[in-house]
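Usage

Read records sequentially. Each one opens with the input sequence:
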Amino acid sequence: MEKQKNAVGRRKEAVTRVFLSKGTGNIIVNDKDYKQYFSLQYLQNQVELPMKTIQALDKYDVKINATGGGMKGQAEAAKLGIARALVELNAEFRPALKAVGVLKRDPRSVERKKFGHKKARRSFQFSKR
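and closes with the structure output:
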């Protein structure tokens, strides 16, 4: 069996499991081509970014299982997962990927709703009289 590396990427509520193996550059997300799954161009660019950084877009096949969150969250989670899998495959890729910033987990997530408030920060309307 060929060498396959896997990694996990997360962003907001989205979680992606990424499986990376030698191949011809196919990127499959939930059994669909990534260009079909992520129909917007900027989301496709997010997914391609780690591979383009190391000029390996046509050297590896990527299979992604994405769950939770929205399209943007899943695309950014996939980006992180692909970058982590590439570093696991070859540690020499780390400096280039780190310089672009694709190895960083974005810690921002939804702020919780507080009691006595309408939303996380929005209060109920206040009437003086």
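Summary fields computed downstream for this record:
- The domain at 4-100 is CATH 3.30.230.10 (Ribosomal Protein S5; domain 2).
- Strands lie at 4-11, 14-22, 27-29, 32-33, 60-67.
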